């Protein structure tokens, strides 16, 4: 269904209302400080460079379609990269004989992706959407070329760090551009299109990526990504608007909080390294992990004080944290990320280690999750547009995902493929429903000029939540496996952790059976970590308010 593209009424930014439990509108928590705008000229002055001319009107239909086609292309690239790199990194490590550096591939990507999120959030307002998008895609292009040309594992890891600088910003930038063109009241339709292209990227990445590696080598997938990036660069330059007036670079640079960025980067790097290394490379009680986490906590405190007390142009507007719903949706994004990423990490482990499915079978089973996530994403977006309410969607999605995590306890060594696919379907419905709803909730809880910041910060919370969820579930699995295997004579727990092939190579079938059962129990118990994250997110969602969604973009 298409939304009306004729001019919509201009509604003062400060007059946004929220719907309480008795469905009576009342003033938004942040409206008292924002105040109503006396004229459209004031609204125009508040808009970022390049958007002031819009003044509440939706763009022409052709322009809108071109912009959405560009964003769908970027979404496709992000999903294609995610799927192909995850499935082919083992081939890279095998070629370079560097399995000890295997974990650094993902860590390097997450470090740069997480650290750069707030920087893009500030730069999109300072320099415009087009230049930030071009920089992000170009960074990913450089990273892809370096990946394809890598002559060592170290070079490959550095290349993935470049990819993180670019692709880590894709999600935030896409949401920001959609918010520029589409009022939050109708944004569900268009976020659904991005969800479909994301799912298509996963499907093509799983099938075409695997075929390319089988017929040629792992480098082919990065040359594919390079070609896609060139197309995306052309589309962004052609269809994403540049500022309509000359940007005073010196003035905009002075408004960037470099000290805040530096503190943020240090805190994120220490946090990501601590969570990534803890329980794997180093023991949780080791001095280096304790030091990293303590430094991260200390720098976060300093960062918070600086931003709240002294920063002239804070990275994160203070008023965002004065609104309960804004804070709670960020917490919910963190918890959702922890659940989803831990499932996407340890469900494949179950499929490959316990069921011993081949790569193609595992990919097809996981694609069931992606397919139904796309379907749920579309249905949720359309329903929110129809009803004008969104909190119900967050609660329902998290409730379904909670059910899926609980049902993971049914998995066993001999579980049928029907049970596995059924659980993937339930998990996909819960995951997909949350994707659209959390974006709408975040944008609806702040005034227009704060949309870029809360979108980038929500993406950051999602990413760090994912790292935390993977770490928690991994620690549960490792500790449980070690405890259960310790009572089995002649079996090395460390050898099992290093390679699952060890347990399948045991000659004593009785002992092998005990070890496999222990591994299965450990995986099953690790799903309780995912369950804890999503259940906490469900509880948090009951504190959210439903705001009347804007029908204007300026």
Automatic annotation (TrEMBL):
<dbReference type="Pfam" id="PF07690">
    <property type="entry name" value="MFS_1"/>
</dbReference>
<dbReference type="InterPro" id="IPR020846">
    <property type="entry name" value="MFS_dom"/>
</dbReference>
<feature type="transmembrane region" description="Helical">
    <location>
        <begin position="417"/>
        <end position="441"/>
    </location>
</feature>
<protein>
    <submittedName>
        <fullName>Major facilitator superfamily domain-containing protein</fullName>
    </submittedName>
</protein>
<feature type="transmembrane region" description="Helical">
    <location>
        <begin position="62"/>
        <end position="80"/>
    </location>
</feature>
<feature type="transmembrane region" description="Helical">
    <location>
        <begin position="131"/>
        <end position="151"/>
    </location>
</feature>
<dbReference type="GO" id="GO:0022857">
    <property type="term" value="F:transmembrane transporter activity"/>
</dbReference>
<feature type="transmembrane region" description="Helical">
    <location>
        <begin position="189"/>
        <end position="209"/>
    </location>
</feature>
<feature type="domain" description="Major facilitator superfamily (MFS) profile">
    <location>
        <begin position="67"/>
        <end position="549"/>
    </location>
</feature>
<dbReference type="GO" id="GO:0012505">
    <property type="term" value="C:endomembrane system"/>
</dbReference>
<keyword id="KW-0813">Transport</keyword>
<feature type="transmembrane region" description="Helical">
    <location>
        <begin position="363"/>
        <end position="385"/>
    </location>
</feature>
<feature type="transmembrane region" description="Helical">
    <location>
        <begin position="392"/>
        <end position="411"/>
    </location>
</feature>
<keyword id="KW-0472">Membrane</keyword>
<feature type="transmembrane region" description="Helical">
    <location>
        <begin position="525"/>
        <end position="544"/>
    </location>
</feature>
<feature type="transmembrane region" description="Helical">
    <location>
        <begin position="100"/>
        <end position="119"/>
    </location>
</feature>
<feature type="transmembrane region" description="Helical">
    <location>
        <begin position="221"/>
        <end position="240"/>
    </location>
</feature>
<dbReference type="GO" id="GO:0005886">
    <property type="term" value="C:plasma membrane"/>
</dbReference>
<feature type="transmembrane region" description="Helical">
    <location>
        <begin position="453"/>
        <end position="477"/>
    </location>
</feature>
<keyword id="KW-0812">Transmembrane</keyword>
<dbReference type="InterPro" id="IPR036259">
    <property type="entry name" value="MFS_trans_sf"/>
</dbReference>
<feature type="compositionally biased region" description="Polar residues">
    <location>
        <begin position="32"/>
        <end position="41"/>
    </location>
</feature>
<dbReference type="InterPro" id="IPR011701">
    <property type="entry name" value="MFS"/>
</dbReference>
<feature type="compositionally biased region" description="Polar residues">
    <location>
        <begin position="15"/>
        <end position="24"/>
    </location>
</feature>
<feature type="transmembrane region" description="Helical">
    <location>
        <begin position="157"/>
        <end position="177"/>
    </location>
</feature>
<feature type="transmembrane region" description="Helical">
    <location>
        <begin position="327"/>
        <end position="351"/>
    </location>
</feature>
<feature type="transmembrane region" description="Helical">
    <location>
        <begin position="284"/>
        <end position="306"/>
    </location>
</feature>
<feature type="region of interest" description="Disordered">
    <location>
        <begin position="1"/>
        <end position="41"/>
    </location>
</feature>
<feature type="transmembrane region" description="Helical">
    <location>
        <begin position="261"/>
        <end position="278"/>
    </location>
</feature>
<keyword id="KW-1133">Transmembrane helix</keyword>
């Amino acid at each position: 269904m298409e939304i009306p593209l004729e001019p919509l009424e201009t509604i003062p930014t400060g007059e946004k209302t929220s719907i309480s439990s008795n469905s009576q509108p009342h003033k938004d928590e942040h409206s008292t400080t924002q105040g109503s705008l006396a004229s459209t000229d004031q609204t125009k002055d508040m808009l970022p460079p390049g958007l002031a001319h819009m003044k509440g009107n939706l763009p022409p239909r052709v322009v809108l379609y071109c912009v959405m086609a560009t964003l769908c292309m970027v979404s496709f690239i992000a999903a294609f990269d995610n799927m192909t790199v995850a499935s082919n990194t083992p081939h890279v490590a095998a070629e370079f004989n560097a399995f000890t550096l295997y974990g650094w591939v993902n860590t390097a990507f997450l470090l740069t992706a997480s650290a750069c999120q707030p920087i893009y959030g500030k730069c999109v307002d300072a320099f415009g959407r087009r230049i930030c998008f071009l920089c992000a895609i170009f960074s990913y292009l450089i990273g892809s070329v370096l990946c394809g040309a890598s002559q060592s594992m170290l070079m490959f890891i550095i290349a993935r760090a470049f990819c993180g600088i670019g692709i880590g910003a894709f999600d935030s930038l896409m949401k920001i551009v959609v918010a520029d063109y589409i009022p939050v009241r109708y944004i569900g339709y268009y976020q659904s299109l991005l969800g479909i292209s994301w799912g298509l990227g996963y499907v093509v990445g799983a099938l075409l990526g695997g075929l390319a590696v089988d017929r040629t080598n792992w480098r082919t997938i990065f040359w594919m990504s390079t070609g896609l990036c060139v197309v995306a660069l052309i589309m962004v330059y052609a269809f994403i608007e540049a500022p309509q007036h000359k940007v005073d670079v010196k003035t905009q640079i002075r408004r960037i909080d470099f000290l805040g960025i530096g503190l943020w980067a240090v805190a994120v790097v220490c946090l990501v390294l601590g969570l990534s290394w803890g329980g794997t490379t180093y023991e949780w009680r080791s001095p280096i992990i304790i030091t990293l986490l303590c430094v991260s906590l200390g720098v976060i405190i300093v960062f918070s004080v600086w931003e709240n007390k002294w920063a002239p142009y804070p990275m994160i507007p203070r008023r965002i944290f004065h609104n309960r719903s804004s804070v709670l949706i960020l917490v919910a994004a963190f918890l959702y990320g922890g659940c989803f990423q831990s499932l996407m990490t340890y469900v494949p482990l179950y499929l490959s280690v316990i069921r011993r499915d081949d790569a193609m079978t595992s990919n097809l089973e996981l694609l069931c999750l992606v397919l139904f996530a796309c379907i749920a994403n579309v249905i949720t977006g359309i329903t929110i547009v129809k009803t004008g309410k969104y909190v119900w969607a967050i609660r329902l999605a998290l409730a379904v995902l909670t059910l899926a995590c609980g049902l993971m306890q049914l998995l066993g060594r001999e579980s049928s493929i029907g049970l596995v696919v059924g659980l993937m379907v339930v998990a996909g419905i819960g995951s997909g429903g949350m994707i659209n709803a959390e974006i709408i909730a975040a944008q609806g809880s702040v005034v227009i000029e704060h949309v870029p910041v809360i979108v980038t910060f929500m993406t950051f919370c999602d990413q760090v939540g994912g790292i935390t969820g993977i770490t928690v579930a991994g620690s549960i699995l490792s500790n449980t496996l070690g405890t259960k295997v310790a009572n089995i004579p002649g079996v090395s727990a460390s050898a099992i952790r290093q390679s699952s092939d060890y347990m399948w190579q045991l000659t004593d079938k009785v002992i092998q059976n005990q070890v496999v059962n222990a591994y299965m129990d450990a995986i099953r118990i690790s799903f309780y970590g995912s369950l804890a994250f999503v259940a906490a997110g469900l509880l948090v969602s009951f504190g959210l308010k439903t705001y009347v969604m804007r029908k204007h973009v300026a």
